[in-house]
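Lab meeting, item 3. Inverse folding demo.
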């Protein structure tokens, strides 16, 4: 390896709920997850991350209940599986008030609420955090979410990305084009707060949205929040190529990750950007201990307490595998249930028991390590250098032990190896892409609206498959 070691983007993976992705673990001794309704949960967590050297916190969100498994939401409700859950945006100001550096990525869906009010909320957050906010763009995968917003069923997958593309066009016009940088003058002598010459309507008229503007918020430090996206589908990858700056790629193996990352970077180039305009991060599980034995003991306990029901409900499996004897061939189950369209396709072959074991144990994959700080740091360096990841979203098994142990034990080791950068005084975008890059680069599609240019020149929409 030549030059400086590649730094790690280190996010904590959170959700404003009880059980996000590590089901069955909220009742563990000392786990604070039941406190997610309290402001102090978020301020305490934010301080751990700020002092612990994290880049930021990433807040997932869904706007519906997991109600496919066993034909209803009961399993999810019983387990606290993303219900009850609260709005992710609203905890950000509290965390920002007690920190100066960490970033905040929050999930918001483009499928159900129109863009104008959301653009304003994000600008507000970018002001209040002094440029530390990011948006995880999702199109929502839950059927129940569609029914919460007046639809009978989900909008088809690729169509959701087409709507998202226009949603992005609107918010770019508001964030980048509606106000000039020097429009806010704050001239006490003349009693002029803003110069109307520098503020304009956007007059967007599209297939899905009509928005007049002007944007109600003045330009914030980043203007457009850092654009995150989580995807793996061809439509999602094309969308990421045009819009995303940080992509969460699924993938259980190094090869999966490399293929996804390559696909995203190629898509970015197709959209006039550079492969280096994208940061690719993965969800990772780290169980660290002062000794190997301590780490293994913890992991054994987490595994023992993991809820299979929770995993199956989260996967939206329409078939209850736990109702079959373990030795039943999975093909027999699938034959009886032709419409297996959960979020994870069941692999053919093997027995029910083998599939259940895989769903529980196999969730860990390549980006998972149990061990001492040295073992963990070695493994993370391998992910960075061999696989080419840019960062991780750290899965929480226990709040706040997961974050605190990583901060106390692993961060000093990563620092010694030059793998973590200090980001004092920087915006979130600068932490990810370097000082001086608080705003989107000129070759990003959003930049076409700067200074009010092109507001009346339609952009070529992304189109996937057949229109519905
Ligand atoms: C690490 C990761 C985190 C995700 N977080 C969310 C989330 O918080 N909310 C959500 O609606 N979808 C989330 N998703 C799902 C994605 O938005 C998307 O629906 C899924 O990856 C499938 O992508 P595709 O439809 O482009 O194939 C996440 C996906 C991944 C891989």
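The presenter then showed the designed sequence:
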């Amino acid at each position: 390896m030549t030059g400086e070691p590649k730094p790690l983007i280190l996010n904590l993976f959170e959700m404003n709920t009880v059980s996000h992705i590590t089901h069955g673990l909220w009742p563990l001794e000392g786990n604070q997850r039941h406190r997610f309704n309290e402001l102090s949960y978020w301020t305490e967590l934010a301080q751990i991350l700020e002092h612990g050297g994290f880049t930021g916190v990433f807040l997932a969100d869904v706007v519906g209940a997991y109600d496919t498994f066993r034909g209803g939401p009961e399993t999810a409700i019983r387990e606290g599986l993303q219900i009850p859950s609260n709005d992710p945006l609203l905890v950000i100001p509290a965390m920002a008030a007690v920190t100066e550096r960490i970033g905040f990525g929050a999930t918001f869906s483009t499928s159900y609420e129109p863009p104008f009010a959301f653009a304003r909320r994000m600008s507000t957050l970018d002001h209040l955090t002094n440029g530390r906010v990011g948006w995880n763009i999702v199109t929502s995968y839950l059927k129940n979410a569609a029914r919460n917003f007046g639809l009978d069923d989900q909008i088809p997958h690729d169509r959701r990305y087409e709507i998202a593309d226009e949603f992005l066009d609107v918010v770019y016009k508001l964030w980048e084009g509606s106000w000039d940088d020097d429009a806010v003058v704050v001239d006490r002598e003349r009693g002029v707060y803003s110069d109307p010459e520098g503020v304009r309507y956007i007059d967007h008229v599209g297939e899905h949205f009509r928005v007049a503007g002007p944007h109600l918020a003045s330009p914030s430090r980043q203007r457009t929040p850092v654009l995150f996206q989580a995807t793996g589908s061809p439509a999602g990858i094309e969308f990421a190529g045009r819009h995303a700056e940080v992509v969460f790629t699924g993938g259980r193996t190094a090869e999966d990750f490399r293929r996804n990352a390559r696909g995203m970077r190629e898509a970015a180039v197709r959209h006039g950007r550079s492969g280096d305009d994208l940061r690719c991060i993965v969800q990772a599980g780290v169980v660290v201990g002062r000794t190997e034995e301590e780490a293994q003991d913890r992991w054994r306990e987490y595994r023992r307490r993991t809820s299979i029901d929770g995993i199956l409900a989260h996967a939206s499996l329409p078939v209850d595998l736990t109702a079959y004897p373990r030795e039943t061939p999975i093909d027999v189950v699938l034959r009886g249930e032709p419409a297996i369209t959960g979020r994870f396709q069941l692999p053919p072959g093997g027995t029910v028991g083998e599939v259940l074991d895989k769903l529980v144990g196999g969730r860990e994959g390549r980006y998972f390590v149990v061990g001492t700080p040295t073992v963990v740091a070695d493994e993370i360096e391998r992910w960075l250098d061999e696989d080419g990841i840019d960062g991780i979203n750290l899965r929480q098994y226990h709040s706040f032990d997961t974050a605190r142990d990583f901060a106390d034990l692993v961060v000093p080791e990563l620092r010694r190896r030059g793998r973590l950068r200090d980001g004092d005084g920087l915006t979130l975008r600068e932490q990810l892409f370097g000082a001086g890059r608080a705003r989107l680069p000129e070759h990003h599609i959003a930049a076409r609206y700067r200074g009010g240019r092109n507001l009346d020149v339609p952009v070529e929409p992304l189109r996937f498959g057949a229109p519905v």
